[in-house]
Amino acid sequence: MSESHSNSLPIGVFDSGVGGLTVLKAIRDALPNENLIYLGDTARLPYGTKSPASIARYATQATAKLQETGIKLLVVACNTASAVALDALRAQMAPIPVVGVVEPGATAAVRIRPGGAHLVLATEATVRLGAYSKAIAARDPVAEVREQACEMLVSLAEEGWTSGEITDAIVRRYLREATADSFTPNSIILGCTHFPLLRDTISVIAGDKVEVVDSAITTAAVVRQALQSTGLLRSNETAGELRLLATDGITRFARVGGQFLGTPLQASDVQLVDL
Ligand code: DGL
Fold it and tell me: What distance lies between CA 26 and its chain's CA centroid?
């Protein structure tokens, strides 16, 4: 039986830059037959230091671009955009389902450490909105949550500096700041899609008593469930195709994005688009 047009449409994924590729990778691992289209709004990165109004406008434009190409589900693979604009993006895309990354991240943390003390590393905007504190409190009212803005980690990840002396020193400083009053987290939540690239460094510095949690795998599970419940899983057995779009710097996107995706990329694999 041939699959319907809707089922063969790609899943759209967007982030401010290459960080959301960590989520895309988890989706591709979980759902290898799905077609995927990724948009990195590299021209306007970082979102995390911008005002909610600007972030919402950028996220709306990125969503409109993916909507225009035809998608069956949208993944907002950016914690900052999820924290600021998820409801607005859901209204924009309705009835197409929209999945954010904050709620899956909170679910993953609470599952690993029920009643635990969680340290969230995120962008300034995500921290300002207390997005993780709210999402965790809704799932586990006794959990303790602290959120730490770590803007420099976004630049380190974009630069591909995932380990080494400078990266260690910056991570150490953020963790020291967050735990200065003897706050002892059981888990560190990577509340920014760029941070899984720094996972090993964060994990070593935090020590082996601290669990490092990211939302990618849980988000992929939520995507599967949303496609299943709407009858939109692709039935075709062939490997899905991947299209990559960026709003600036395709050479850099390919160089750094390959690291996030775990597969080398060429600039010719990435299409430059304007929003
Ligand atoms: N990927 C974004 C996030 O998850 C962070 C990068 C940015 O500030 O744009 O919040």
Answer: 10
Residue-wise pLDDT tens digits, 228-255: 999 999 988 889 999 999 999 999 999 9
- Residue closest via CA to ligand 1's atom 6 equals 46
Domain-by-domain residue ranges, the chain? Answer: 3-100+218-272, 102-215
By residue count, the chain amounts to 275
Q: pLDDT (tens digit, 9 = 90+) per residue, 20-53?
A: 999 999 999 999 999 999 999 999 999 999 999 9
Q: Which of 47, 49, 58 to mutate to test the pocket of ligand 1 (most atoms within 8 A of CB)?
A: 47
- Residues 6 or more apart whose CB falls under 8 angstroms from that of 138 comprise 106
> In percent, how much of the chain has pLDDT > 90?
88
> Do you find a cis peptide bond into 46, omega within 30 degrees of 0?
yes
Residue type, 131: A
Question: Is 139 strand, coil or helix?
Answer: helix
Same fold? 3-100+218-272, 102-215? yes
3-100+218-272 in CATH: which number? 3.40.50.1860
Rounded to whole angstroms, the Cα distance separating 90 from 98 reads 6
Nearest one of 188, 119, 196 to 153, comparing CA atoms = 196
Q: Which residues line ligand 1 (CB under 6 A)?
A: 15-17, 19, 45-48, 78-80, 123, 126, 154, 192-194
| Residue in 192, 222, 250, 270 annotated catalytic | 192
pLDDT on residue 1: 43
DSSP E strand stretches across 27-143: 36-40, 73-76, 98-99, 117-122
Q: Which CATH class is domain 102-215?
A: alpha beta
Question: What pTM did the predictor assign?
Answer: 0.93
150 noted as active-site residue: no
> Structure tokens of 274?
């304007």
